[in-house]
Each structure stands twice: as C-alpha cells, then as structure tokens.
Amino acid sequence: MSAIAKVEPMTTARALRGPFDYRLPEDLREGVDVGSMLVVPFGRREVLGVVVGLAESSEISEERLLAPLRALELGVPVDLVALAEWIAAEYCSTIARALALVLPPGAARRLSGRKRRTPKRTDHLPVGAVASGSLQLTAEQQAALDDLLDALRAPAPAQRLLHGVTGSGKTEIYLRATAATLEQGRGAIVMVPEIALTPQIVGRFIERFGDTVAVMHSRLSAGERYEQWRRLRSGEARVCVGPRSAVFAPIEPLGLIVLDEEHDASYKHEGDPRYDARTVAARRAHDCKALLLLGSATPRPESHQAVPRLRLPGRADGRPLPPVSVLDMCGQPQGLHPQTAQALADVRRSGRKAIVLLNRRGWSNFLSCRSCGAVWSCPHCDVALVLHRSQGVLACHHCGHREQLPERCTCGSGTLARHGAGTERLEHDLAAALDDGGFPMFRLDADTVSGAGEVATLLRRFQDAPAGVLLGTQMVAKGHDFPDVTLGVVLDADATLRFPDFRAEERTFALIAQLAGRVGRGGEGQVLVQTIAPQARSIQHAARHDSEGFLSGELERRQALRYPPYSHLVRIVCAAADTPRARAAASAIRARMQLADAEVLGPAALFRLRERERQVLVVKATERAAAVRCIGAAVQQVASARTHAGVSFSVDVDPQ
Ligand code: ADP
Ligand code: ZN
Ligand code: ZN
N or C: which end of the chain has fewer CB within 10 A? Predict the structure, then answer.
C-alpha cells in the first residue's frame, strides 16, 4: 500500500509537465491503483487526475504535498494507462490528451454534477437476413478459422489479415473467433468504420452474443455511453463493438481485436492526438498478448506486406463477382455514358435496384464568370466555393463558409459558368434520364443526411424499397449489404486519382472494388465505371477483381518512391496569420531536425484555411521512433520560442 500517488491532471495545457505527487490518506491507500481516477486540488481548481504511478516516498516534503479530495468508483485498466503514455509519445501529444482517450466517456464532465441517468435501452439496429449460428463453413472459412483458433491458443500475441471480398464470410469468422475468445475467459473488441454504415455486423453480434455485447456509437447520449463503458469495465459485457474509439474499451483480459474494413480512412483520428486506431490496436494487442485480426476486401498495402494472410477468395454463397465494364469518357459529353443510361433504364423497367457513386457533393464544383474568368472562392480559405443549388448558396467544403448565390459578377456580367458535377446535380440528371419522378431515389451525402441516425434511416429505406437508386458519395460503397442490387455505377472514377496523394491509387481501387462487392449478391449484376483514365492501373485491376495484382504493383511503386510501408511519413503543419511567419517557423523546425536517415520535403505552401496561412514539412523516415522523437523535440523548441509566437503547430504521424 503506497503512500504517494503520481497523478496526471486532466488539463489541456501543453506546457505542464506532470505527473504530480499527491499524498494518499489512509482511507484511500487500499483502493487506489494505477488507473484510478482522483479528484485533486490543482492550483486554485479541482481537477480530475489519473494515477499513473505509485511510490513509497516523494522528493517533496510530506507537509507540502496535497491529498486528493476523493476517488471515483471505477478507474481505467492498467494496460490502458501504459497505452496512453505510448500514444502521447508516438503521436507527439501530451499525456493528458492521450489519457482523455482512455477515460470513461464524459469523465471530466461528470465531475461536478455527478448525477447518474438511468440509461435508455439501446435501440436495436436492423439485423442481417440470416440467423447464421448453424452455418456449415466453407472449406476456406474452416481453414482460416482453424488458423485463428491456433493463434488464439498460442501464448504469444499474433496478427492475421483476413482478405476476402464482400460476402466471402468474414463476419462469420469474426463471430466464431469471438466465441472462442469468450470461451477462453477473455474479451474481444470488434472495430467497424462507422456504426451507421454497418448496422448488419452490429446486429449479428448482438444476435449471437446478446447482453455480452456493448455497442459504442455516436447516437448514444453521454449517459448511455458511460453505461456501456461501465458494463465493460465491470465485466458484465465482454465484447465491445464500435468505431475507432472502441480500441480503448476497458476489457480485461483482452484476447482478440477485430478490425473490420481495415483499409478505411476513418480509423485515423484527426484531432490531437492524431492517432491511427490500427496502429494503436496493434500495440494494445501486442501488450495484452491478444490476437489482432484485420479484415478487408481491399487491404492496405501496408497490411498486405506485414501481416500473415488468410484468404477467402470467393463469395460464401458461391456466386461470382459481377462483371465490371470500364467506359471511356474521353470525348463524351459530361454526364451519363449512353451505356450507363441504358443500364439504368433497364433497372427501372425491371423494377430492380442500382447504386450510383460520385465522390463529390453539391451541384457543381465551382462557378466562374464567362466574361472575365473570375472564380468564386472562399474569403477564408484559398479554395473554390461549391454551388449547392437547392439551398441557393455557395459553400466552402473546408471551413463551412456559405454565401448567397451571386446574380452577376463584379465585372457586371450575368453569365456564369458552372464546372463539374456533384451529387446534387447527379440526382437531377438521373431523374431526367429516368424521365419519371416515380422511381424512388435515395441520395446519401453530407448535405442530405446529417448524423448517424439519418444515414441509417436512409439506408434502411433503400433496403426496404422494392426498387430504386441509391446515389451518393463514397458512403454508398461502405459496409452496408443489400442483397438485391443488380447495377453499380461509378462516375468520374478517376476523381480520386487526381488528388496529389500517394494513396490516390489505393483509394480509387478500393472504391471501385468495394462497390463491385455490393452488387449482384442475389445473382445477376454488373458494374459500370465511367472515367477519362480507362487505362489507370487501379481502375484496370479493379475491373478484373484483381486485388493481388493491384497490391503487388502498388508495393513495387511505393518501394521505388520510398513511401509507406517502405518509410514512415510525418507531416508537420505550421499555421499563422501571414505566410512569412508560418514559413519562418517551418524553416526553423527543418533546421533543427538532425535526422540521418530521413528525407525532408518542404516547407511548401498549403492552401490558406480559416484565415490561416499554412506551411507544411513532410518527413520520410526509415526509423520511425527516432524520427518522431527528433521531430517532437524540434517542434517543442520552436513552439516555445518567442520569435514564433502566434504560430500553431500540428504534427501528424502516418498522415492519411
Ligand atoms: P463478409 O463479412 O465477408 O461480407 P458475411 O460473413 O457477412 O461476409 O457473409 C455474407 C453472407 O453469406 C451472409 O448472409 C452470411 O450469413 C452468408 N454466409 C457466410 N458464411 C456462409 C457459409 N459458409 N455458407 C452459407 N452462407 C454463408
Ligand atoms: Zn466577371
Ligand atoms: Zn473556407
């Protein structure tokens, strides 16, 4: 029983260097351990603190040490405290910010008014069609499962990649691996990209494991979320299904972490700490001697290269994947290719379902003046404004700025040109092409649905409709599984290729392959891909359902260009009111980085965002830990120098 608790106060100040020592009064000694949460006096405030260590004595004299005011009933598991410490270092953040990730939901807020709400019952999400408990596994599934069961029984931690198309029976494997984990007396975490887009997998876990499952999703109130956390912490629930943050579920002992759709970009957290839940899951699984199981139809090259693979080559029901035709749009007028229009008309006539994907919101990309050429751009960011016609506004997709649609240009001209098409325009064009208002259309993008609840509702309406078209941004190609879609269409498939990003090929491939996986589940089907780059490698491989070929080519390309997994990228952004300040800070960081085995690119300008000029440095390093340490130190030094006051810094390890 220790007399001193080392406590990290939950404050966001970067300058503070904890932990701080507190004297434990007799009555607290027994119950307090690493991971305990205490309310402590701190300066003139009372703050929540997390115990990160215990000691017999302190360097500070006993009478000067303060005592905690009280201890909260439930703390966090010890392994999560260590994980938070690792995250703080790995992603150049602070220990308090990293600890905030692993604390019970709303912990800091519940400090004052600690009234417990009676939790509402979680409304059950729709369940997949088949109660699959008694399925006879295919030979491939059985082989994969046997391997996983061996890995679960082994004393050392392990990783596996389950590579199989949509419908190949991956979820069935996750369910059985989870059952085996529970039989061993251990718990499991099942991570999915977004609950709203993946209700079926959640439904199947609840159906199979009942109250043993805790579901974490954004539609829960703070009280409900805390209740799910408490059920896991107390051991009442032993399986946690949820998005990215589920990696911090308080499960002890942990035996399995499943990461479904492991290629999905939502696993990367965009706030500080900018952690990647896949990397964190690997770390946690390793520390807990648990099995990490990644699953995807389109795994990342990084996982393909590093993780032993289990292959499910075909659909579980034995049906083939739909044929994919690439339609060359060079020289074609904007809009639908004649073959696409024909296929949609067929779907309408036969009363079937189609999914149409266009990865761009709004009506048109940008607006310009036909007479002087002026382009309407955001006053706060250097990007073009996007036209949203039904609302009659121009909107910035980066900062949210909106303004009225102009009637004329400042030069006096009233003829304005609209360039490019977005989902809003597409809906209009489709209605025209299907020349009837009677065919149901469901548009899914950030303008038509806000929040997870509305997404789920819209998808359910499409699912329940006897016929219709689901159209929208990449959301339409994710997770959800409709048995009766006979046509998939990707418009402007090369749009994602035009992003200046080394993952552009990977994203394009995944988008097409993911959509193809959702078509023709009930039998016949076809996929049409409209593009002005029909020969692009990603499009060609996707059209042949050749993920092996795509992955090996992509790895070769990455090796030649020294991109991940052959290097680690760190991105440092300096933002300031004017360019010289931002640039000076970036140059100062660059000058301070003594990295033997790394390549530093920049400073280079990023477009102005929210009135801030931005300069970016990108480091390609071989030795990840050394690079992160060195960069962290350089940023710290520059950030605390007076010359660079007013500059804000963000460090992104493994940027997406
Ligand atoms: P994935 O997760 O790879 O998309 P699922 O596990 O959801 O695949 O399986 C797709 C469909 O096939 C589900 O309806 C599931 O019940 C069914 N299924 C899975 N395994 C089998 C099997 N061995 N035999 C018959 N049907 C299966
Ligand atoms: Zn003009
Ligand atoms: Zn803006």
Answer: N
Strand ranges across the sheet with 568-576: 598-609, 612-621, 568-576, 648-653
Taking the C-alpha atoms of residue 427 and residue 450, their distance in angstroms, rounded to an integer, is: 18
Asked if 559 and 566 touch (Cβ cutoff 8 Å), the reply is yes
Q: Which residues contact 168 (CB under 8 A, 6 or more apart)?
A: 140, 297, 312, 313, 314, 315, 316
Which residue ranges does the chain devote to CATH 3.40.50.300? 137-312, 324-362+422-560
Ligand 3 (ion): residues with CB under 5 Å are 378, 380-381, 396, 398-399, 401
Distance 368 CA to ligand 2 centre (A): 8
Cα dihedral: 264, 538, 169, 125 (round 10) = 40
Ligand 2 centroid–CA 430 distance in Å is: 31
Q: Which CATH architecture has domain 324-362+422-560?
A: 3-Layer(aba) Sandwich (3.40)
Does any ligand 1 atom lie closer than 6 A to the CB of residue 137? Answer: yes
200 ligand 1 Cβ < 6 A: no
- Our CA dihedral for 30, 73, 99, 8, rounded to 10 degrees, sits at -50
pLDDT at 580: 96
Kindly report the protein residue whose alpha carbon is nearest to atom 10 of ligand 1.
167
- The structure tokens listed for 414 are 């009233």
Q: Does residue 100 come out as left (phi exceeding 0), alpha (psi in the -120 to 50 range) or beta?
A: alpha
Taking the model in full, what pTM does it have?
A: 0.89
CA 627 to chain centre: 24
CA 16 – ligand 3 centroid, Å: 33
- Which spans in 184-293 are helix H? 199-209, 222-234, 277-287
Q: Choose which residue among 171, 190, 197, 311 to substitute to test ligand 1 binding: the one with the highest number of ligand atoms within 8 A of its C-beta.
A: 171
Question: Would the CB of 479 count as within 6 Å of ligand 1?
Answer: no
Ligand 2 mean position, distance from CA 365 (Å): 18
Q: Is the Cα torsion angle 178, 180, 183, 184 positive or negative in sign?
A: negative
**Does 3.40.50.300 match the CATH number of domain 137-312?**
yes
Helix ranges restricted to H, 449-519 = 451-464, 504-517
The ligand whose atoms approach the alpha carbon of 608 most closely is 3
Distance 385 CA to ligand 2 centre (A): 16
CATH architecture of 4-109: 3-Layer(aba) Sandwich (3.40)
* Closest ligand to the CA of 382: 3
Phi first, then psi, for residue 272 (nearest 5°) are: -80, 130
User: What is the CATH superfamily name and number for domain 568-653?
Assistant: Ribosomal protein S10 (3.30.70.600)
Task: Provide block-wise average pLDDT over 10 residues at a time, the chain (656 residues).
Answer: 89 74 91 94 91 92 90 92 95 90 79 41 39 82 98 95 93 97 98 83 94 89 92 96 96 97 93 93 97 97 96 89 94 89 93 91 79 89 86 87 91 86 84 78 84 82 93 82 90 80 90 91 88 93 95 94 92 95 96 86 91 94 90 92 93 90
Q: Which residues pair with 526 in a beta bridge?
A: 487
Q: What is the reported pLDDT for 268?
A: 94
Q: CB count, 10 Å around CB of 194? A: 19
In short, whether 316's Cβ falls inside 6 Å of ligand 1 is yes
Where are the domain boundaries for CATH 3.40.1440.60 in the chain? 4-109
Tokens, residue 636: 């710290």
